Amino acid sequence: LLASQLFGHRRGSFTGAVSDQAGFFESAENGSLFLDEIGDIPLSMQASLLRALQEHEIIRIGEATPKKVNVRILTATNKDLSKLVEQGVFREDLLYRIRVARISVPPLRDRKGDIPLLLNSILAERRIAIGKPTVKFGIEAMQLLTKYQWPGNVRELKNIVDHCIIHCQKSVISPSDLPQEIIESSHKTNESFTPPTSNQNQISSYEAQNPEEDERDRFLNALSQVSGNRTKAAKLLGISRATFYRRLEQFDIS
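and the corresponding structure tokens:
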């Protein structure tokens, strides 16, 4: 099935092949093909994939004549491919073929400052789709989410945003609207959120709108609520001071 999806097949080449079918390589001619979780591809398929990358040609199932293809390949994995090579489950020559320009994306737990930005960005997209255009994250909920370790990374973050939108009965998402694992994680690490101060009571939450349009206003609003104290403003937004200072420079806020 995987060979058919990647390289295509001829009619009658196997049960269920009722017509000729082009594979992903042919469909992506002169474009890009993204292969997610490349570390999970079976050894039996790795040789065929290597030939496609090395010779720029594929052979449909049921055919004998190769076809030239011109495709740029992007791959992704959450596994250590070098260790898979040592274990004998991933071809070393294929690893060297795909390991050219590399981008390492750290897990969410290692970039806490990005979490509020991601939460608000995803909320801005999902709240409209689900039908709650006025819902927003409260300060307490945002602090708990920022402290969470996010073992499922962005996939888990998106699901939790949906959970919050569905369960929130008001316009502000509070800790009671969060999934149980978020609350339990906070208890296990003996961490607790900091209640808003009297200054923070005036702005208990921020509406998650288009981040490109509203991000600068959010920072200015936070600064105004704490009389320009940058440390308090960063805490109010649920991000680190380093991230806050960097964003101030990007927004040209003195």
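(Above: one complete record from the training split.) Residues 191-213 have pLDDT under 50 and may be disordered.
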